[in-house]
Design goal:
This protein has helices spanning 11-20, 25-39, 43-50, 56-70, 147-163, 176-198, and strands at residues 91-98, 108-114, 120-127, 132-135. With 199 residues, the protein is α+β, with helices and mostly antiparallel strands. It has 6 helices and 4 strands. It is elongated, with a radius of gyration of 22 Å. It has a 4-stranded antiparallel β-sheet with strand order 1-2-3-4.
């Protein structure tokens, strides 16, 4: 497939793409930026927007990722070998484990990190035993002004997930020893966090 090259005659192509696709709000806004650049004959802006990809999908996803990164102070524009925006590396990364039991070896992990501008976020991998889920540190994560507020929110998030599984009758996926150990570790982390703020 030929790469997309935007120019001042691309407005109909963009309009057709908008009509033919179910777009997220950010996609529609970026495509509208392209149309505004065309309407204003702003070739420099159009070329800059086009530098984010060789398709409408690539442009919208990459530009959205770049702008989300700006919220954390990441300004570098770089792409991987496949043309997708490179994920920025968070500063002061930290992994905190909860509920590790020697019998099962499963545990949950809170991933903390901050952007260049001091905004913190977290990722979470959670395990109920055999079932679980998660997501890593990302510019799409919730934003916090401090490590402590990010950790407090993450602990409450993990606690809510675990509490919902206490007493589950699904003994295949939800291992009560892991769930209860995780809840104990969360409470210990909360106590430790309070004690640290007292000093």
């Amino acid at each position: 497939m030929e790469s997309l090259v935007l120019n001042l005659q691309s407005k109909n192509q963009i309009s057709d793409y908008i009509v033919d696709n179910h777009l997220m709000k950010y996609e529609f806004e970026i495509l509208n930026e392209l149309i505004v650049a065309i309407d204003e004959n702003d070739l420099a802006q159009l070329q800059w927007l086009n530098s984010f990809g060789d398709s409408f999908r690539g442009i919208t996803m990459n530009l959205h990722a770049y702008r989300k990164g700006l919220e954390f102070g990441f300004t570098e524009i770089a792409f991987d070998q496949y043309g997708w925006f490179k994920r920025p590396q968070f500063l002061d990364p930290e992994d905190l484990s909860f509920g590790d039991t020697s019998r099962y070896g499963n545990h949950s992990v809170i991933h903390l990190g901050r952007g260049i501008n001091g905004i913190w976020t977290y990722g979470l991998n959670y395990s109920f035993g055999c079932a679980g889920g998660g997501y890593g540190l990302s510019v799409y994560g919730k934003q916090f002004k401090s490590r402590e507020s990010a950790l407090t929110f993450a602990l409450n998030d993990l606690k809510g997930l675990m509490t919902a599984k206490v007493g589950s009758t699904d003994t295949t996926n939800d291992k009560q020893p892991i769930i209860l150990a995780t809840l104990r570790d969360i409470e210990k982390a909360k106590v430790d966090s309070v004690q640290l703020t007292l000093f």
